[in-house]
Amino acid sequence: MMAQVQRPLVIQSQFIRLCCPRNARRTTGARARHHKQLHTSTVTDNDITRLASLPLHPLTLADLVKHGRPPLTTSQLLSSSNFTLSILPARLAHRIQSLRNLPFIVVSNPHISKIHSNYIHSLSTLLPWAEREITTIEDEVKFTEVMADLVQTHANTISILARGFLEARKYISPTDVTKFLDEHLRARIGTRLIAEQHLALHFSSQPHQEIMHEVEDPGSFVGVIDTKLRPAKIVQHCESVVSEICELKYGVRPHVVINGEQEYTFAHVPVHLEYIITELLKNAFRATVESGKEREPIEVTIAPLPEELVENGNNSGGNERSRAAIKNKDQGNTDIASNSFTGNDGSASPSSDEQIRPLAHSTPGVTIRIRDRGGGISPENYQHIWDYSFTTFNEDQAASTLSGGNSGSGMDALNAISGPGGDGVNSLAGLGYGLPLGRAYAEYFGGGIAVQSLWGWGTDVYLSLRGVGKVEE
Ligand code: ADP
Ligand code: K
Ligand code: MG
């Protein structure tokens, strides 16, 4: 039986409390009450068609920091909420349309349809605010509650979608699932980022002294962005989390050696980095232990990107990231390995919804190499590792994890897959979401993930991340 691991969510809980102190302690029951308090409007098909036909705002990183450094003045908070409000309804409507475009039998699956109704619910809480301006701090507070509800409502999306697509796998091909999820989950990253940024700006602008004490350097945060994020610290944190899960499952834990520039800091979203590193370490731990090499350390190297590479690179962003570049990476033919972004041109996700661009003055980035002696990936599996549903984790195990057969509690068991903002991380391998979702997070700000397998020996994974930009004082 897979025991539940209480994840020591140091970094994440600091973040959640910082951005949303009341919400962080809210239980499901309290959430239901919270739902009732929110003013809603019925969502009609007309609303969806109209909103989905609006052009999507090309979100830039500058948008996330343009309202200023906390604590924000009242007028800055109002401008953040109006900006957030101007963006979200169209984004939600696009997601609803995309869900409706799935084969009918797939949308009819109770889990997929749950996601659809979550989107309808969130849109119904936004409609009363649409086409008006938030001009008072009282309204700003109410709007912030809508944002907290939005983030909370969609917290478990990933495990619900995984369950839905697992059940509907007879009716939709893995390629179509990957196509849908790639777009959907990338769009979700952006939507959550916008809502969480407003929440974080709101709460870090309140005089919550006790909360401020818990964060090492609250002054380094601009909303959800930590301008002095130290990758080595995230790696250490994730190592301890993954080690515990590994020890519970296998009774052993491989050792992790961190080398390279351990003091390096850059600007990034800590919860994104935490998600990616956790998934990559889980893969390395699992491979290492399952191939009986638990005495061989997993090596994590932190290699900052030389400044001139960023300056010479394509800093203008845009979303023309070629699929060919990904193909190259998939085949292990990557420039990331040479610590350069040229093979992965810094543009964001391929999804039509997503147009995140690096700031004009990008701060340098970092490449993190995770090297294990876990036997590598067979050529035949290698071509599938980026498919959302592909896993070599025992399928029965995965299915029974989802159905709750192992833990006795369906909801607990759903934590097989993790994701920032709600889904848990209690299993060493999930349902094949770690690599593709990790890559979606990395690419969101112009980074990437490349996997080099030395079949029969081990695997090198190169995670490249760009600094998310200089934040003006
Ligand atoms: P999951 O871990 O849930 O199976 P992932 O997307 O994280 O899903 O990985 C997909 C598959 O890629 C794994 O099931 C495994 O077969 C392979 N894989 C990923 N990383 C490694 C690694 N470091 N060593 C060996 N195989 C790996
Ligand atoms: K996969
Ligand atoms: Mg994995």
Automatic annotation (TrEMBL):
Residues 333-353 have a biased composition (Polar residues). GO terms for biological process: regulation of glucose metabolic process. Its EC number is 2.7.11.-. It is found in: Mitochondrion matrix. Its main location: mitochondrion. Keywords: ATP-binding, Kinase, Mitochondrion, Nucleotide-binding, Phosphoprotein, Transferase. It is an enzyme of class 2 (transferase). This is Protein-serine/threonine kinase. InterPro entries: AK/P_DHK_N_sf, BCDHK/PDK_N, BCKD/PDK, HATPase_C_sf, HATPase_dom. Residues 320-332 have a biased composition (Basic and acidic residues).
